Amino acid sequence: LMLCEYYDHRMAEHDVLLSGLAALRNVRTQSIRIVASECLMAAPFLPALMNVSEKYQDAAIELMSAESNAAHRVILNDTAHFGLLLDSPDDVRLRVHAAARQPFVVLMARQHPLAIHERITPEMVVENKLLTPLPSSRLFEIIQTVFSSRGLSLNIALKSSSMQMILNGVERGFGIALLPALFAPEDQNSALI
Predict the structure, then answer these.
(1) Which of 36, 55, 90, 96 has its CA 20 to 30 A from that of 68?
(2) Whether the predicted model's global pTM rises above the 0.90 cut
(3) Is residue 69 very low, low, confident or very high in pLDDT (cuts 50, 70, 90)?
(4) Coil, strand or helix: which one is 132?
(5) Contact yes or no for 76/93 (Cβ under 8 A)
(6) Which residues fall within 8 angstroms of residue 137, CB to CB, at 6 or more apart?
C-alpha cells in the first residue's frame, strides 16, 4: 500500500513537472510583452531588445508605449511581462528589479551656439527653443519644477510624446532638449552633443 501511494505521489509530481515544462516551451514560442513609458521610447533601448531577441529567438517582442501612469497600470494588471518606467511609484505590487539615477543633460546639435560652453545653466537654456516631452509626462514635470523654482519660464518650441521626434528635432537644429543622460549619444561622431 505504501509503495502504491509513493508511486502515485511521484507520478503526480512528474505530471506537474511535465506541464510546467510545456508551459515554459509555450512562452518561448509566443511573445514577450514589454510596456515602456512614452518618454522612454527611443533608440537607446534597441541594443537591449536585440539581445533579448537573440537570446529567445522563438519569441516575438511586443513593445507598447503608454503614458507613465498607464504603463504602471499595464504592469500591475499583468498585461505586460515587464516594463521600462521612469520614477516608479512606491507600490508594493510593483517589483522594481533595477533602478538607476539619471542626471539630466542638455542635448543640442554640434553647430549650436551653446556647444562651445563646458557648463550650461538654466538661465542659458531659457534663451533657446526647447523641445520637451508632453506636459503629462514625469520628465516634463521634473524639468518644469527645476525652472519654475528659479523663476524661469521655458521657451518651448515643440512638445512630443515621441523621444525619437525630439532627438531628431534637436539633431536638425530645431532647438535643444533637456533629457536623462541615457539619451546622450555614445558615438563621438554623432550629430548631437
Answers:
(1) 55
(2) no
(3) confident
(4) strand
(5) yes
(6) 37, 38, 39, 67, 68, 86, 161
